[in-house]
Write a structure and sequence with these properties.
This protein has about 180 residues and is an alpha/beta fold. Helices cover about 25% and strands about 35% of the residues.
């Protein structure tokens, strides 16, 4: 003989679903993103592919940032630099020092107030430098200096020794 407890009323166990609600409960499980786990591998692969072509990723970043900073308001403020999500090394920062009042690693960028539309703190991020064909490369650069101050720009580059020269650029997004 099987003894079962009496069944509880439905609305005591859980609230009733509203009319039109789906039958599946919401899932708030936090999962890591596979892209974040792969990012170091992607950066390593990009570095290896660039170095095998005889091009220095940091020197190409200097060429791009020089082009960005030479006529920019950022030169009057503090510029924070990251390359592929990492702080720029000392040699890269030193090469850029003549172009701005102050140059610092990207991780030192202060948090801006949510209502700050523009500031004297400019975060420049160079990423996705990759070989297109022959001696041509493409790179992405973005800058952010407030909720109404930022852009994402695609650069076309040409190999010059172990560095790059800017051939052209195209603004993808501008605030």
């Amino acid at each position: 003989m099987v003894c079962l407890a009496p069944r509880a009323l439905g609305d005591i166990v859980r609230p009733r679903r509203l009319v039109g609600a789906s039958g599946r409960p919401l899932n708030f499980t936090v999962r890591s993103h596979p892209v974040r786990r792969l990012t170091p591998l992607i950066v390593l692969a990009l570095s290896i592919s660039l170095s095998s072509c005889g091009v220095s990723q940091d020197k190409c970043a200097v060429a791009i940032l020089t082009d960005q900073l030479k006529n920019s308001l950022a030169a009057r403020g503090t510029v924070y630099v990251s390359i592929n999500g990492e702080d720029a090394d000392r040699a890269t920062l030193d090469a850029l020092r003549p172009l701005a009042a102050s140059i610092r690693p990207g991780s030192q960028m202060p948090h801006l107030a949510p209502d700050a539309t523009a500031s004297d703190h400019w975060l420049y991020s160079v990423s996705s430098i990759h070989h297109d064909r022959d001696d041509r490369y493409t790179a992405m650069v973005g800058f952010y200096c407030g909720s109404l101050c930022g852009a994402r720009i695609e650069y076309q580059l040409k190999k010059e020794g172990d560095s790059c020269a800017v051939v052209g650029q195209r603004i993808l997004v501008q605030q």
